[in-house]
Amino acid sequence: MSQTIAELEAALNASPDNWSARRALAEAQLAEGQQVAAAHLLMAAPMVPGDEDNLMFTAYTIAHTAEGWEPAQGLLEDYLKAHPESSAAHLTFGRLLLGRGDTAGAESHFKVAAVLDPSIQVDAEMQAPVGVHAIHLQGEGPHHGERMLIVGEGEAVHAADKKSDTNEKVGALAAAIAVHAAIIFLLGLVALTVPVSAPPQLSVSSVSGEESSTVENVQLNKVSRKTSATMSQSTPIVSVEAFSPTAVPQIVDPNNTFSMIGATGDSGDFGMSMSGFGDVSNMGAIPAQMRSRCSASQRLKRLRESGGDERAEAAVKKALDFVASKQNADGSWGKEFKFASTGLALLSFLGHCETPESAKYGDSVVNGTLFLMETAKKNKGKMATEGAGNHHSYEHAIATYALCELYTMTKESGREIPRLENTLRDAVGIIVDGQDKAGGWVYGYANGGNNPDMSVSGWQIQALKAAHNTGKKFSGVDRALDKSISYVKKAQDDKNGGWKYRLVGEESTGKPTLTGAGILALQIWNEGDSDHVKKGLDFLDKNYLGRPPGADFYAPYYNMQAYFMEGGTRWETFNSKFQKALLDAQNADGSWTKGDAKDSLIRNTAWGALMLEVYYRYLPTSDKVQGLKVR
Q: The domain containing residue 59 runs over which residues?
């Protein structure tokens, strides 16, 4: 068996996303009595298939460690919300509750299982045959005493029909008691010996002011739940009615890979996201317009419906892993323009519903948020690198955009971040006040001019739309957006349909690099059907369509969103050419392009993730997506 474990470990190291190898290894470890190792192996899985067999196996296995009970409970609760008729899930949940001493909870689930599956009997007798797991249920029965639910290994036995045999009954009862005692003892031992890691702290000290929070210190406790998604069946089914969790099926080839399949309501498949607030049990806490990014099944469904390649979700995860690995000790990302890099990194996490409660990336999100908020507190709301000069208008807008999106995703959850609203009020105010007379923005928020910069303005508009999405009615936001649309229309080149860098001067001709920014600005603020958008897309069709991503993802980031928002044939044509090129350009470590002193590696990788998240992420910042099934 040790040789088998070694081979499976090698296969899994070569392909960490290979669920069949991961499960086979866990089963081999269980057969060797390595319960904790198997649990940790499953808890480290990037994805858990959403079918009943794999979910029940995972939940039962990880529940037997101190840190695994909560994610196991979450898996079962979420599955039962979607499949309340699953007797297997009720049985598994009941057994786990019983092992934790919750006989009332166990009884409730066993009762439901017995109703759902007639082969499971609730009996009036006190005995059970050998090999059968039993729980005593209080209530009225034929003898007005205790009832017993008898759950067999793939069968049910009605105790009243069992031939009387006192010795067998006593032996069976003793065996059942011994099994329960052993399980409870082991659980208690694990709970005492396995240390629980300290949760990340998100603390913001209050300062005086009429709108300041009175909260001095708030701790965010991360919920350690794993991500699952619907994938093709990769291993033979092991009946969840078997009491032993260690039965090893025939091991499939651990080198096989399987395509992810998005769940649909018609198929009966189900995938649950346990990342961020996106687990199904807490779905009501996610704003309706953001829920498509917070469920693995919905992400994959949107991906499939919108023409996404099956590799896209795996590519996003690799990119997020890379971004997380490059975070600085102070919580920021990057070297030269930390606030821009940090804002983009946070946006890429949030686009996948990775919030401070994310089991895998929660620390990264918390530390990045703290970095931005602490700087804003010191600088009267401004978030920019000291000495960045005029570039601080870029940095501040991107950072504000990220914090607004985080606020929207957490405000209804009951886990809102202390003083984030006050931070945003100041940060958004800087953008509103920095708008110039023409309706746009220039470097350094020097609002006395009349010749705005389309590149700078594009980020301010995105930040203001994110502020609008918070629902907090920050002063001047809608008015500033209305004014900005007037400017954006003027910035379009009447001759070629592209967008200018500036209204007048040497750079007043339409450019492919800025056209996506102009189109997107109109699309996200009620102008998606305008002639300006049509002309701009015509320009991109001639000057951009079919280009590879290149070395700078600034323009592709805008263009992919513009085409997605347009939808229909334009999107299908663009997506069929660009998506493959983007996926093929990703480096083995999850990054895109090469790094340099100006942080292009971090920025491009975050942009790359955001582009591949567009299939499900972008719905929050738009009111309409034409030509798609994702309205």
A: 2-193
